[in-house]
Amino acid sequence: TxxxxxxxxxxxxxxxxxxxxxxxxxxxxxPLRGLMGAIPGQKAETDRYLWKGGKWLEGLEFTAEDxxxxxxxxxxxxxxxxxxxxxxxxxx
Length: 92
Prior knowledge:
Largest sheet: 3 strands, antiparallel
Helix content: under 10%
Shape: globular
Structural class: mainly beta
Number of domains: 1
């Protein structure tokens, strides 16, 4: 998946290897899982909570331009505002 560097560097982004003191299991994203909470500075009615995340991460790639990831290329919204029903884009 993809997200902005500002969002990744926020306090609402987490790279996890463990949960509740135990290493993540494969079903839950082992060896590394990224979780994105609400975006700082967003109003409550537009907050996106756990709107992006990746399981089974083996690396991170930083680019100057936005490159939609697997789910975005499969039709899911890149912005995912749940209050506007943007979770899935049907415009393809």
